[in-house]
């Protein structure tokens, strides 16, 4: 039985309120263990801004999460198809790799530069970058020579940067609301993979549209993203002033002259104390303090991201080399089904020992390596039926990754012991380290796919009939 957390009003808890939570109890014998793993409820001495319509706000958060990650997910799902279009099958992971490299650069830029700007300003930048990315990939895929592939890869970099800018901004922005809304963001990012994959398959196969048209039709989604964030921003700042308003607006304004008052004029939106906004700059002492306060959260976030991107796109691409063109995108969609379910779960219950999820993901990686080399599942059934089992397995991979992500984001925003001014910096550092791991995992397959995981080694007799 799950003890559902009540829909929060303005919440103020004691400073050491980590411990007493209602547990999720599966059996009487396992109660003590489950208590040590899963927690339910809010955790921090923070006064939250309660939206006037909680369900509408939750839906808007889901929409922002989905549309923020949509371009990344559509490009990821289409990457094998785009590579085949330009006869670059062994370079499928290039598109994902360049997005992750650019995401790594984006975390540095976000930590050092964008953190100083208001949340709304950052989202405007994200929307412009997303629109340019969709348009650019649409134009690149109309080309017939391989130059188009590399132009698409370059525009994918813009998509990767926009996704990180938007994710860090939204997660920091949401700290003004009750923490249960973080689950809506996590669910939305998972839905991006599901609807991105389904939409791409539907438009490409039943409707027969070109890849170029698919990306062109995505451009208007940026307007919907803006509308959803605008609504949330209005809800977050409504009726606030002083310290709480500065926290909801975000950014680090420049310090005033010593003789100047704490605010400019009478407008509380001009508060200048960086700590009031909840965002401290990425100086070396602040970075060290953030790692001390949230290092264990960062480690699990990095480990799981690295492991799951070893499976997707690297091992998934090798597993589906001889499959129909929809199976690679189907694996991406299946992964995101798991991600959506597990990220949404943080709105209901939280897992404290996230290292258990990391351990299980490691087991998944080992199993996928064995399957890619042996083909035990894909060769065991005729007519590609083995891929249905692999798709279910990919759901489990997504469950592990999404659960770790959702719980780590929740802990970044609520865990006791993390100074308020270091929370956004902790999120930025977590994404920075994660993108190093992701980049290493995806980039390694550019080498592995051309050497020990080359198609002729995995399929020495060619693609078997019937799969």
Overall mean pLDDT score? Answer: 81
The percent of residues in helical segments reads 55-70%
Number of beta strands: 2
Total helical elements? 16
What is the spatial order of strands in the main beta sheet? 1-2
What is the global morphology?
A: globular
How much beta, percentage-wise?
under 5%
- The low-confidence runs, each spanning 5 or more residues with pLDDT under 50, are 1-45, 259-277
Estimated radius of gyration: 23 Å
Structural class: mainly alpha
Largest sheet: 2 strands, antiparallel
String of helices and strands? HEHHHHHHHHHHHEHHHH
How far apart, in Å, are the first and last alpha carbons?
Answer: 43 Å
Your description of this structure?
This protein has 467 residues and is an all-alpha fold. It is 65% helix and 1% strand. The protein has 16 helices and 2 strands. A two-stranded antiparallel sheet has the order 1-2. Helix 4 runs antiparallel to helix 5, helix 4 packs antiparallel against helix 8 and helix 13 runs antiparallel to helix 14. The protein is globular, with a radius of gyration of 23 Å.
């Amino acid at each position: 039985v799950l003890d559902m957390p009540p829909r929060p009003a303005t919440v103020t808890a004691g400073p050491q309120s980590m411990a007493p939570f209602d547990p999720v109890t599966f059996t009487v014998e396992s109660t003590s263990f489950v208590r040590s793993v899963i927690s339910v409820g809010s955790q921090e001495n923070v006064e939250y801004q309660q939206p006037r319509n909680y369900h509408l706000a939750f839906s808007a958060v889901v929409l922002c999460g989905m549309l923020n990650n949509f371009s990344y997910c559509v490009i990821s799902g289409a990457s094998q198809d785009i590579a085949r279009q330009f006869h670059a099958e062994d370079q499928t992971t290039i598109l994902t790799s360049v997005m992750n490299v650019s995401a790594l650069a984006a975390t540095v830029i976000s930590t050092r530069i964008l953190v100083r700007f208001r949340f709304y300003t950052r989202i405007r930048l994200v929307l412009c970058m997303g629109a340019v990315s969709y348009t650019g990939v649409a134009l690149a895929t109309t080309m017939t020579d391989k130059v188009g592939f590399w132009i698409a890869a370059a525009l994918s970099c813009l998509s990767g940067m926009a996704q990180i800018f938007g994710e860090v901004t939204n997660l920091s922005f949401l700290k003004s609301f009750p923490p249960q809304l973080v689950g809506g963001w996590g669910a939305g990012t998972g839905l991006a993979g599901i609807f991105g994959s389904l939409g791409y398959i539907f438009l490409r196969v039943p409707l027969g549209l070109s890849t170029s048209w698919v990306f062109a039709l995505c451009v208007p989604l940026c307007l919907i993203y803006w509308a959803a964030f605008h609504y949330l921003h209005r809800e977050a700042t409504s009726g606030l002033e002083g310290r709480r308003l500065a926290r909801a607006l975000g950014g680090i304004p420049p310090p005033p002259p010593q003789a100047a008052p704490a605010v400019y004029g009478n407008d509380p939106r001009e508060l200048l104390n960086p700590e009031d906004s909840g965002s401290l700059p990425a100086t070396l002492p602040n970075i060290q303090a953030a790692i001390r306060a949230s290092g264990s959260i960062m480690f699990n976030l990095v480990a799981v991201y690295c492991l799951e991107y070893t499976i997707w796109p690297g091992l998934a691409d090798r597993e589906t080399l001889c499959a129909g063109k929809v199976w690679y995108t189907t694996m991406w969609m299946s992964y995101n089904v798991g991600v959506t379910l597990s990220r949404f779960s943080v709105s209901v219950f939280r897992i404290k020992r996230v290292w258990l999820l990391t351990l299980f993901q490691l087991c998944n990686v080992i199993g996928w390596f064995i399957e890619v080399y042996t083909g035990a599942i894909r060769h065991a059934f005729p007519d590609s039926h083995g891929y249905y089992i692999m798709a279910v397995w990919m759901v489990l991979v997504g469950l592990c990754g999404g659960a770790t992500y959702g719980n780590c984001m929740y802990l970044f925003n609520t865990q006791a012991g993390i100074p308020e001014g270091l929370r956004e910096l902790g999120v930025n550092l977590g994404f920075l380290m994660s993108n190093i791991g992701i980049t290493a995992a995806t980039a390694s397959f550019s080498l592995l796919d051309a050497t020990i995981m080359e198609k002729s080694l995995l399929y020495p007799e060619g693609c078997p009939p019937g799969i």
